[in-house]
Amino acid sequence: MSIDALRDLIPAYAKDLSLNLSSLASETVLTDQQKWGTFVATAYAVGVPEVVQNLEAAASASLTPEALNAAKAAAAIMGMNNVYYRALHLMHNQEYATLPAKLRMNILANPGAPKVDFELWSLAVSAVNGCGLCLDSHEKVLRAHDVTNVQVQAALRIAATVNAISAVIRGEKAAGA
Questions:
Q1: Is 102 annotated as catalytic?
Q2: Which of 73, 125, 134, 156 is catalytic?
Q3: I need a surface site. Which of 13, 41, 52, 101 has the fewest CB within 10 A?
Q4: List the disulfide bonds (predicted).
């Protein structure tokens, strides 16, 4: 399983996604760990088995077991946080935003990868999950760590492409293809 195997699953009508996947896999604006962690975190956030399996296999040469676990942890914790904080952001009653979340987030203190990488993965997952509040929060931390707008954009491009490929593969399965 690999990028090529994943590209083989993408139908001809979605050729642009296949081309984007190839170019993003060759992206050099992020470190290999940042890039492949973003692929893995967003794949886990969407949860399409073929996408998760192929991207995790492609990432295996670039991620330590600890970094792989941290990328998965970013998908897990943001899966919870994105729902909670997006809801607070969307609700008109601001009283809820003044209450403590009372949700365990211990992984944030020691994610098993450099803080900047974990923040980048969390930002990408937040894009997939559509939480503007979390996007702003993680982008602010990244910029404070001298991550450039081009690097943030690269993570967002990976998130968008992984999400779209996952949707196409899910749709094809639903259609019985």
A1: no
A2: 134
A3: 13
A4: 131-134
134 catalytic residue (yes or no) = yes
* Candidates 3.40.50.1240, 1.20.1290.10, 3.40.50.720, 3.65.10.10; CATH matching 3-174: 1.20.1290.10
From first to last of the 177 residues of the chain, give the pLDDT tens digit: 599 999 999 999 999 999 999 999 999 999 999 999 999 999 999 999 999 999 999 999 999 999 999 999 999 999 999 999 999 999 999 999 999 999 898 888 888 899 999 999 999 999 999 999 999 999 999 999 999 999 999 999 999 999 999 999 999 999 986
Q: Which of 131, 147, 155, 168 is catalytic?
A: 131
Three-point CA angle 76, 164, 153, nearest 5°: 75
